[in-house]
Amino acid sequence: MLDLKKKNALITGIANERSIAWGITQQLHKAGANIGVTYLPDEKGRFEKKVREVVEPLNPSLIVPCDVQSEEQIDATFAAVAEKWDKLDILIHCLAFADKEGLTGDFSDISRDVFLKSLNISTYSLTRMAKAAKPLMSDGGSIVTLTYIGGVRVIPNYNLMGIAKAGLEMSVRYLASELGSHKIRVNGISAGPIRTLASSAVGGILDMIHHVEEVAPLKRTVTQIEVGNTAAFLCSDLSSGITGQIIYVDGGYEVMG
Ligand code: 0WD
């Protein structure tokens, strides 16, 4: 059965209790995993305070700052992991960013700086973190990232993030192909729309949720915990034959054309 006891899991992307990463953290913890989390550092320390408040009930082994734009912070994060644990088993990549300009208006108006920053944070970070995780996953491992159907089809206002997610999904496949011989599996979860800090930046997110409630076979969108359950499955031996895949956790919306 689903058992993550003795597995060490590093989870990125918790901003608050609505974050998908928090749903994943709770379900990995419930399955017995040891938990380490990263937070995005800011000058006033507000994110750190919030993340500590949210995760402390689970008694995490590690809470470390990591802005994925920083090579130093990524290296320091994995050095902290290596110091705390003899191995890493699970890496959850659950973060993304695009300036408002990338999520509204005309797609062709997106500036180079806004484009590159979004791809740096939302797409390249998976590859960079996988590189840092690889030597620590000495017993094999599971890497899971979060994506959205807007990386496959045009979804109104998703704009720049659609490009970032298309690149992310292809990164899953190339990373899976490289890391399979190290017994490291790499998969993505394509979640239905959920109200979070990040999704509130996407214009018309509530309309999208209502559309999914009308169209999806299950007639509803999904919860952070449902995404967390799929992540727990992808991190467990129950999914030992699965790598390089994007699994839709979206109430079935994707099949509706
Ligand atoms: O409907 C949704 N909410 C969906 C989200 C549907 C399908 C996929 N996703 C994806 C997102 O694109 C993202 O990859 O799920 C992932 C998590 O998103 P979320 O849970 O919706 O958003 P949120 O709770 O805001 O967490 C994302 C966090 C950031 O929060 P804010 O809102 O402050 O940007 O990503 C982190 C940060 O904590 N983050 C960073 N972490 C490290 N370095 C950075 C960075 N540079 N930038 C953002």
Automatic annotation (TrEMBL):
It catalyses: a 2,3-saturated acyl-[ACP] + NAD(+) = a (2E)-enoyl-[ACP] + NADH + H(+). Pathway: Lipid metabolism; fatty acid biosynthesis. Its EC number is 1.3.1.9. Keywords: Fatty acid biosynthesis, Fatty acid metabolism, Lipid biosynthesis, Lipid metabolism, NAD, Oxidoreductase. CDD domains: ENR_SDR. Substrate binds at residue 98. The keyword rRNA-binding does not apply. GO terms for molecular function: enoyl-[acyl-carrier-protein] reductase (NADH) activity; NADP binding. The active site is at 148 (proton acceptor), 158 (proton acceptor). One of its GO terms (biological process) is fatty acid biosynthetic process. SUPFAM superfamilies: NAD(P)-binding Rossmann-fold domains. Homotetramer. Belongs to the short-chain dehydrogenases/reductases (SDR) family. FabI subfamily. This is Enoyl-[acyl-carrier-protein] reductase [NADH].
